[in-house]
Amino acid sequence: MSSEDVIQRAFEIIGEALSLEPEDFQDHETWKFLGLGDLLATAVASDLTNETGKPIDPSDFTTHQTVGAFKQFLRGGDGNSKPATSNATNGTSTTTTSKPTEPTDPWQGLPKPKVPLSVILQGKPSPSTKTTLFLFPDGSGAGTAYGTLPPLSPTTCLVALNSPFLRQASAFTVSIERMAALWLPEILRLQPEGPYVLGGWSAGGYYAFEVAKLLVKAGKKVKQLVLIDSPCRLEFEALPEQVVAELTRKGLMGASGARKAPEWLVQHFTSTVLSVEQYAPEPMGEKDVPPKVSFVWVREGLVESVAESGLEVDLGVKVTRFLLEPREELKTVGWERLLPGAEYGFDYMTGNHFQITQSPHVESLGRILQKVVE
Q1: Tens-place pLDDT, residues 281-302
Q2: DSSP states of 75-105
Q3: Residue of 47, 207, 221, 317 with fewest CB within 10 Å of its CB?
Q4: How far, in Å, CA of 303 to CA of 296, rounded?
């Protein structure tokens, strides 16, 4: 077999094991992200050796941890990429890697955004504005999802941030911290001085947290964070790709009514998950922590019963249970270690994680935001 024939057959075999088509694999995806655990890697390595005639060891998936690196290995090249290490915190396995060296200019090497970085949804930044609330997007990258929020207050300006990588998700290979740096000038343009109120849904909570750190570093004051159903990275894993695929297949992710999630949303969500997988947040110093941190949680899961839903997912992954199963009233769930010493507030809204900006549940969120930012 030629090297390309070996690659084609190899990814047919791997695809069968992971319930993916060979063309679904992206070179930047890691085997950990795709859900190739140790036991499955052992079985797949044996099948690859038998089918292709090329000796494959399970450790090859660790040595060549991305799809692209593994393809290069199959071609006979090196393709080495250093594996991530696992650090158990409170029984939760999290990916820890050395922090990448970020460029002085965060836009270096990146394409120009195809959409505006910010959209003013309510009010306008002015001296008469009591509060400007900046809301960062979830994994979809679309801050305009907050456009469904009811009017909050005549003295509140609501600004939604759009991802720089909307409609070009393949370029989204940057860290959560670098994403925050991309948004910082836009926030300072709209509100040159604090105090700032920042919030975000899901991964948007991570962006809000990192932007808060950058503002404090710049000598600005952040008075409040609003974390909307945002699972702390110290306690929860990144969402496995298999779960993304299953939720997409069942029409549970980013869907509205009978309409399934558009392809651009799924692509951006996948890129976000890859970025979150590498995210290892560091705490703010207690003197820098915003005085008030407001949590908004949903109680409902995506399905009433995982067993009866037909979803093929691993419920041993905490973040999968977080999304799928009904919950008790959550509290800080790890965020207290990143934001020590704040005054914490808790509110609970209707709907599940992906219905937060959909009617009628967004009305519940609107009432909460109206209260917490007063």
Answers
A1: 999 999 999 999 999 999 999 9
A2: TTS---BPPPEEEEETTEEEEE-PPP---SS
A3: 221
A4: 20
Rg (CA), the chain: 21
What are the structural domains of the chain? 3-84 (1.10.1200.10), 118-372 (3.40.50.1820)
Length of the chain: 374
Q: In this structure, are strands 131-136 and 118-122 parallel, antiparallel, or unpaired?
A: unpaired
pLDDT in tens, 339-349: 999 999 999 99
Contact, 159 vs 200, CB < 8 A?
A: no
Q: Calculate the average pLDDT of the chain.
A: 89
Q: Following DSSP, what letter does each residue of 313-354 receive, concatenated?
A: --TTSHHHHHHHS-------TTHHHHSTTPEEEEEEESS-GG
What region does 260 belong to: left with phi over 0, alpha with psi -120 to 50, or beta? beta
Task: Read off the amino acid at residue 104.
Answer: T
Closest CA to 354 of 303, 314, 281: 303
Q: Which residue carries 């390595």 as its tokens?
A: 45
Residues 6+ apart with CB under 8 A from 277: 30, 32, 33, 95, 238
